[in-house]
From TrEMBL:
Residue ranges of domain Homeobox in the record: 39-99
Swiss-Prot/TrEMBL keywords: DNA-binding, Homeobox, Nucleus
Organism, scientific name: Centropus bengalensis (lesser coucal)
Superkingdom of source: Eukaryota
Biased segments, Basic and acidic residues type: 31-41
Protein location: Nucleus
Protein name from the UniProt record: NANOG protein
SMART domains assigned: HOX
Gene that encodes the chain: Nanog_0
Length: 154
């Protein structure tokens, strides 16, 4: 979970692993057609500079989605590839969505605790929903049997 400051400002979150300058280089093995194994280095993560990140964050604040032309222009300005900028914006939108979902659940939990919500009292009051609804003769409805038709009626 990201570490946030008490100010609640989203930009105060620690950088995610995609922007971390520490990246491990992994190796993967792939069997070639001739039976020999080929060792291939996995693509390492991009370590964006502080200036690049600052520009990307500023642009994201004003515009969550970029057109392909805008991505090309921004990537040229920052010295990044089209795919790097496109992926950064996709990842950043997902990070924002996760943050908003987390805040929504946190706010709901705070609302329940502030309104003196007591789960035990709720379960005691509504225990029949948690233990199965009793079946009695008064709450069973009879359903007429379905008629099945095989071929033409005779």
């Amino acid at each position: 979970a990201p570490a946030s400051s008490t100010s609640g400002n989203f930009s105060q979150f620690a950088p995610d692993s995609a922007t971390s300058p520490h990246s491990a280089t992994a190796k993967s093995q792939k069997r070639r057609e001739d039976g020999m194994e080929e060792v291939k280095k996995a693509k390492s993560r991009t370590a964006f500079s502080k200036e690049q990140l600052q520009t990307l964050h500023q642009r994201f604040q004003s515009q969550k989605y970029l057109s392909p032309q805008q991505i090309r222009e921004l990537s040229a300005d920052l010295g990044l590839t089209y795919k790097q900028v496109k992926t950064w914006f996709q990842n950043r939108r997902m990070k924002l969505k996760r943050f908003q979902n987390h805040n929504m659940w946190t706010e709901r939990a705070q609302c329940l605790t502030q309104s003196s919500f007591q789960p035990n009292a709720y379960l005691d009051m509504h225990s029949r929903f948690h233990q199965g609804y009793p079946i009695t003769a008064s709450n069973i409805q009879t359903v007429p049997p379905l008629r099945q038709h095989y071929g033409a009626e005779q």
